Amino acid sequence: MALTIYGIAFSRAFRSLWAANELGLDYTHVPTHFMKESKQPDYLAVNPNGRVPAMVDGDVVLFESMAINLYLARTYGAPLRIDDPVDEARAVQWSFWGITELESTLLRAMFTSLGLFGEEADPAKANETLNKGAGRALTVLDRHLDGRDWLVGGNFSVADLNVAGVLNLALSGRLDLSPWPNVKGWLDRCYGRPGAMKTLEMARSASR
Ligand SMILES: N[C@@H](CCC(=O)N[C@@H](CS)C(=O)NCC(=O)O)C(=O)O
């Protein structure tokens, strides 16, 4: 089956490109930009939302980065798949959690920190936004990671990739994660993986 992932790496498509790289898959990357290109009819036929990422794998067409990654993990296996159904549900739990509890605050804080989209760069204000909007969730994550290397079971899995993928916004925005040392250590483990480093390089070249 031919796998295609749409979306420039400097976007939420980063998460699904990271999953494909982590799995060592042979795939076609179509670097659709999230502004004009994602609103063209040929792309809207793949993802009618006009957002990236999207994925086509044979006759399977998906949008939503978390769903794409859960599909890739289940379909292609190690090192992302979780075989135990309860642990797999925990991966779904953490994926929803990352999107609902963290993402919007991280985005806002990143824009403020870097001065994007008309905002004045203000790292102190960005860290205030982070603490106010996501401090409680980050403390939950920090406590969960106390004495654990990975979110679910004993190994790196799609659960780690999905939540760390959302937290890439904090790394890109150079936000201060020092109040949550277990989160920092776990992010270092996640982003030290070759699949993550390859995808970060793709994101860097896309943003140049
Ligand atoms: N919940 C979606 C969000 C996708 C999303 O909003 N992507 C942005 C790029 S990072 C986009 O395509 N924005 C274009 C737009 O909103 O028109 C996912 O996780 O896949």
* Run of helices and strands: EHEHEEHHHHHH
Instruction: Give me the secondary-structure category.
Output: alpha+beta
Strand order of the largest sheet: 2-1-3-4
Q: Ligands in the structure?
A: glutathione
CATH class of the largest domain: Mainly Alpha
Low-confidence stretches: none
Percent helix: 55-70%
The CATH topology of the largest domain turns out to be Glutathione S-transferase Yfyf (Class Pi), Chain A, domain 2
So what's the overall shape? globular
- The count of domains is 2
Tally of DSSP β-strands: 4
Q: Number of helix segments?
A: 8
Oligomeric state: single chain
Radius of gyration computed on alpha carbons: 17 Å
In the CATH hierarchy, what is the architecture of the largest domain at level 2?
Answer: Up-down Bundle
Q: How is this structure best described in words?
A:
- By secondary structure, this protein is an alpha+beta fold.
- It folds into two domains: 3-79, Glutaredoxin (3-Layer(aba) Sandwich), CATH 3.40.30; 85-197, Glutathione S-transferase Yfyf (Class Pi), Chain A, domain 2, CATH 1.20.1050.
- It contains eight helices and four strands, in the order E-H-E-H-E-E-H-H-H-H-H-H.
- It has helices spanning 13-22, 41-44, 65-76, 85-114, 123-144, 158-172, 181-191, 194-207, and strands at 3-6, 27-30, 54-57, 60-63.
- It has a four-stranded mixed beta sheet with strand order 2-1-3-4, covered by helices on one side.
- Strand 1 (3-6), helix 1 and strand 2 form a beta-alpha-beta unit.
- The model has no long low-confidence stretch (mean pLDDT 97).
- The structure holds glutathione.
- Glutathione binds at residues 11-12, 34, 38, 50-53, 64-65.
